[in-house]
Amino acid sequence: MEDCDRLHPPGWWRQFKPPKHAKSNEGVLKSFYDALEAHYPSDTKLHCAIRFRPGYGDSVELSGIDKSAQGLSYWEQCKVKPFDPYRPHGIGKRQPMRYSTVDPSNRFSGDEWASIVNAVTKCPVLEELEIDEVEVYRYSVSTIIVDLLSRVSAVRVLGLRIWDSAVDSDAFVAEVAKSIRKMKTLEKLVLRGNHLKMDGYHEILLQHLFPSVSISSVSQTEDQSMLKELLWISASDNAEHFYEVFITLLRNSRLKTIELLNVRSGSDILWSHDSNLSFENLIFLFETLQGNKHLKKLDMEFLTNFRRPSEKDVTKEIVGKLLDLVGHDFYVEEIYFPSNLPHELRRVENKVRKNVADALKGMELINPESSRVFLCGLPYAGKTQLRTTFGKEHRLLKLLNRHRNIPRTCGIEVTSIDARVAKFSFWDFGGQVDYHFLHDLFIPSNCESGGSFVILCSLVVKEGKMIIFKDGRKKKATFKGSDVIEEELEYWLRFIVSNSKISEKFKPFISLVFTHLDFASKGDIANIKKSVEDIVELKLKLKFGNSIQISFGPGWSFIDARAKESVKPLLQGLADNAQKMSEDGPRVYRLCVEVEKILMEWNKDNPKRPLIKMYEFEQLCEKSLSIYRSKIGKHFQDICKAVALALHDSGNVIYFESLNFVVVRPNWFCHDIMGRILSLDAMSATLYKEKPMADENGFVKKEMLEQILDGSYDDGSIRKREREVEGILVDDLIQVMKEMNLCYEVAAQDRRYDGGLFIPATLRNKAELGMDEDKLIKWQVEPSCSDLLICYLGYRLECDDQEQTLLTQGFFPRVQIEFMKRFQSNANCVVKHNIISLRYDGKEVIVEYCGKSTPAHSYDHMDGYIDVLVKSSKSKADTLVFTKKHVLGLIIDVCYSANIGCPGVLLVESILNPKFVEKPSRMRDRKNQAIRVNDLIRNVKSNLMFGSELEPFNLDYDHEWPSPGGSNKAQDLLGDDEWRGLIMECSKELAVKVNKQHQDLEEVQAEVSFPLDDEQPEDPNSFDVNENDLKGFDLQTVFLYKVIKHGFNTVDERSRQISEKMDKISQQVEENNKLQKKLVLDISRNIEKVMDFSIHLQQCRVPRLVYFTAAGNVTRLITSVVPGLESVQVHLMCEHIERIHVVTEQKGCELLLSSDHFQSALPYVIWGVRAISLLVKIGGVAIGAGVGSLVEGAERDIIKGLASSIPQNKVPSNLDEGVVSRALLREDLKASIPVEKQNVAEQWLVDFLSGKSIPDLFDLHRIRYTCGSKRLAWVCGKHKRDGERDKTMEIVPA
C-alpha cells in the first residue's frame, strides 16, 4: 500500500484508493467494488489480479490496459519476469491499485471472496484475469477459483499459478480445466510454475483442457475451442516428461501460438543429470509439426534443456534434416530456437519465416516437368559452344550458327530446349572473373528446384581464348597439370556446395565434362583420361561425396563441344539425372509449373518486355488460377505474390515483395544490365564530366548510371545494348539492384558522398587496375598515451567445412552493402576493396576479407575468411556486446539470409591474437594467429578437468600462439561472461558426477552388507570431510571446488547462486566420501564374503585376490578364454585390511593355457572381474575427473585400463558412463560359484604358487596384524614397511 500511495498516476482506476487506515476488509473492498462499477472511459479494458500469497496474505489488484502505452504487456512480462507481480507497461504512474486484507489472518473470508467473485464476474470490460499462487490445500480457495472461472464472460487472457499441493489437488486442477474449457472468450492462457510440483498440475490441466491430447477417442471438438495462444512457464527438471507432454500437445491441439520458458533454479540446473533433450528430440519435434495447419508460432527461445551437439560435423547434419522438414507440408510461420543453441540454426528460423508469405500451402503438388542445367567453368571452357550444339539439334539457336567464333557470355544466358529425352533450360554462367559475384544470386538456393550442374573444364592451357602450344608451334598443345585440373574442379564444386541448401535428402547432381582432348596425340589420350579419372574417383568423390552427387563416365565426360554426336551421351546422362530428380526429389506446386509455362510462351511472344508490372503478372497468373477461383476467394493477390516468390526462388523470375513489378527474364537483367555495368573494366579511371565515374570508395553518380543503363552513354569501354526493350524505367532497375544487394543508394542530402550509388563491383575493378594494392591496414585514429583504457578485440569468421565450402566472391560485397545500410546514417563507414572501416560511438572497427587466390587464377579467394578487428575506448563488456551483435551478428545474418546468403555455408567463430589486433598487420602475417572458440573452450575444459597432478585445474590457462604470437590467458580471450559460463558448466558437470557417484555407492551398499565387527566403524559420520581436508577429492576437483566456492562471491547474482549451490555439492561430497570409506573398509575386511570364498584359503598360505591379464599388456583384463589365446599373466592384489588394491610395479607370472590345470583356475577369472569392478565403482575411477577417487597415479591408470575390458562396460577411455558391479555383469560372471569348484580353484592356486617367490614376482608379503583379530593377510611392500614402522603388523613366513 505504501508503494501505491507514493504514486500519483493519471489512470482513472487510481482514484478508487482504499482508505489509508481501513479497519476492516469491507472498507478496503468497497473501493474495489466502486472501481468495477464505475463509468469507464471509452475503449477501457481492465486487468484484475487475484492473489492468494502464502506468508503475504490475500489481495486483489486492478489496473486499466492502456494498449497505446510503451512497455510490456502482461503476456510479454511473464516471459521476461515470470514471477514478478504484473506492472502494466512498466511505469509508475500506471501501477495497479492493490486491495489487501487488513484482517490479522491476512485472508479474506469466504463471504468476502464470494462478493469479490460476484463483482468481478459482473464487470463487462474485464479482459485479463490473473490468478496467482493458489493454495490448493485451502478448500475454500478451490471453490472460489472454480466458481470464478465458470462465471467470467469477457476474459480474453488468463494467467494461472497453482502454489501448493494437497491430497485432492489433482481433482481441483481437473475442475479448473473444465471451467476454462467453458470460457467462450478466452484466447490466451499463461501457465506459470516456479516449483517442480506445478508442472504436474500443468500436465493434468492440459489433459483436461484438451481431452483429445490424452484420449485418442475424444474429438478435438471437445477441446477448448477459443484458446489460441499458450505461454507455458515450466520449472520441470524432467525434460523428457515435459517433452512428451509438449509433443502430444503439438500433435493434437489447435493452438496457434505456443511459447515455452524453462525457469529451473540454479540447483535444479546443477543436479539435472539426464534432463537435457537431445537434437534427435528437436528433429522429432519438427516431424510432429509437419501437417499441423493450426500452429503459426513456436517460441522456444528461453527453453534451456537442449544439449549442444558434441561432434564437429553433427551441426551440419542437424541443420540439413531440419531444413528438409521445413518444406511444403510445414505451416508454422515463426520458430525461435533456444538461445543457447548454435547460431547455425538461424538458417532454419529464416527458412520458416520465409514460409509466412507462402500462400500456396495446401495446394496441389506434382513432380517437376522440366530440368534446369547450370553450365559452370572458366572462360573458353566450351560452355557456350556446348549450349549452342545442344540447340542445333532443335533449331532454337540458328542465328548463333552464323558466327564462326562463339561470343563470350556476359553474365548469364539461358537457352531452353524440348529434347526427345527431356525438357531442359541451360543456364550458361559467364566464366569471367567479373561475373562470378553474380552467379550465386541466380543459382536456386535449394536443390529441390530440379536443377543440376555441368562443370566444363578445358584440358589445355589458354591465354585468353588462345591455346598455348609447346615451343610456340601449333602442333602440340600444352595440357594442364593434374594439380591445376583438381584445383579448378574443386573451386566449382565448393562454389556449388556453398550455394546449395544444406540437406540430408536431396544432393545436387553434378556432371564433370572435359573439353579439348582432341588436341592431344593418340598416344597421350589414354594417360590424360587416366589422370583425370584418378582425380575424380580417388579425390573429389571422396571429399565431396556426402554433399553432392558427382557423375563421371569415361564414355561421355570427354567431349568435343562442337560435335552433335559427341555430346549426345552427355545429354542422355542429364536426362537420366532429370528423371531421377523428378521421381525421387520433392514435388512442386502445379500452379507454379503452369504459370512458368505461360511465362515461357509470353517471353517468346514479347521479346522486348523483360520486365512487367505486378498487375500484368497477375493477369498471366489468372489464366492458371481460374480453376482455383472458388478456393482462393479474396486471396488472389496473395497467391500471385506467392507464385512470384516461388518462381524467384527457382530462378525463373526476379521478384521481391517491395517491388511492384516482376523481371520475367532474369538472364536479361544479368546479361544486358549487370553485364553492361561490369563491362566498365576501368570504371574508376573513366571520366564522366571530367570526374571519375566511380570514386575511390566505389560510389557512382546516379545520373551517369542511368545513362549507362538506358544505353545513351558510350565511350567505347561499355558493352553496347544488344536489344531494344520496352517499358523499362531506370529507377526500377536500380530498385532490383538494391534488393539484390548489388548496390546501395546514398541519400542526396548526404554531403559526405554527394549522393549516388555504392557499387562494390567497381572496387574490384579498381583493385585489378592496381589502384588498391594489398597495403598494411592500420587504425584511423592512433591511441594516445592517455588512452589507458583502450581495449582490443579480434575475431575471425570462416567456413566450418573448409574442404567443401567457401565464402563466394559475391558474399563480401553484399556484406559491405549491409554495413552501409546499418551504419551509413550515423557512423563513419568507409568501404574499399575487401575492407570495411567503421567508427561508431568510441569504437573503431576494421573488417577485412582475407584469403589466398589460387596459383593459376585470381578468380576467387579459395580459402576466404573474414577478420574483424576492434579498438574501443568503451568497457570491454560493452565492446564485446557491440561486436557480437552488430558486427559478427550482421555478417552471420547475411550468410544465413534466405535471399542473399550462402545457403550451404555454416560459419564458425575464432579469436584473433590481440597482439596482431593492437598493431594490425597484413593478412598473411596473422593467418595462423587465430583459434576457434570451440577449440579454445575444449582446451580449457580439458585443462580444467584433466590437468596434470603437478598443476591441477589450472584456471590460469594460457593459450600459446604460433611464433611469434606469444601467449594470452584464456579468460582474457573468451571474455568474462563466456568464462563464467564455462566455469558454471564445469560446476554442473561436477554436480552431476557427485550425484552419479552417490547413486553408484548406494547401489554397492545395497548389494553388499556385513555384520559389524570390532574392526569396523559403526557410524559412517565418524569420517570427517571438510574444505580444508577433502581427502575424497582428487587435487583437480579440490581446486575446482575452491575456485567456484570462493571465486564468484562478488561477480553477479547468477554467479552467487552457483556459489551457493556449491554448498549443496560439498554436503553431497561429504556424504559420498564417508560412505565410500565405509564401503572400502567393509569390503576389504570381508573380501572372502564378497568373492564367495568358502574358506580362508589355507590360513592365507598364498594370496587370494587373483586376476589375469593378456601377456605383455597389464591393462587388458582377461574375462573369458577365447580361441587363439595361448597364455595369460597372473597378478595378485594387495589385501590390506583398510583398502585392497592392485600393485602397480608387479611383474606377475605367466600361465600357459595349454596346462591341464587351467580349467581349475577359471573361477578366479570371475573373482578377478568382480574385484576390479568393485575397485572401479567404490574407488571412484568411474568419475572422469576423479571426484571422490581413492585411486590415483599409476594404479588409477591400470584400473581404468582393466575396467575397460569388463563385459558390458562400454567406456574404454574415461569411464564416465558408469562401471560394472555384480548387478551389471553378465549372468556367467555374477552367479555364485559352487563350493566344489571353489575348493578346486583354491587348491590350484596353492599348487601354482608353490615354489615361486611371491615377494619377487608380486611384491606381496605375508603379515599378521598385531591388534584386533590379528588376522593374516598378504600386503604390498609399501603397506608392509608402513606396518613395520607403526608396529601394526608383523612378518609371518609363508
In helices, the fraction of residues equals: 25-40%
Looking across the biggest beta sheet, what order are the strands in?
3-2-1-4-5-6-7-8-9-10
Q: What is the C-alpha radius of gyration, as a whole number of Å?
A: 38 Å
Helices and strands: which structural class? alpha/beta
Which runs of at least 5 residues are low in confidence (pLDDT < 50)? 1-9, 265-274, 393-406, 768-773, 853-860, 947-953, 1016-1036, 1181-1188, 1209-1230
What form results from the Cα inertia axes? Answer: globular
How would you characterize the largest beta sheet? 10 strands, mixed
Number of E-state strands: 44
What is the number of helices? 42
Strand content: 15-25%
Average pLDDT score: 76
Distance from first to last alpha carbon: 88 Å
Describe the overall structure.
The protein is of the alpha/beta class. It contains 42 helices and 44 strands. The strands form 11 sheets. Strands 3-2-1-4-5-6-7-8-9-10 form a 10-stranded mixed β-sheet, with helices on both faces. A hairpin with a 2-residue loop joins strand 16 (462-463) and strand 17. The termini are far apart. The relative contact order is 0.04. The N terminus is likely disordered. This is C-terminal of Roc (COR) domain-containing protein. It comes from Ceratodon purpureus (Fire moss).
Key terms for this structure?
17% strand, seven-stranded mixed beta sheet, alpha/beta, 1294 residues
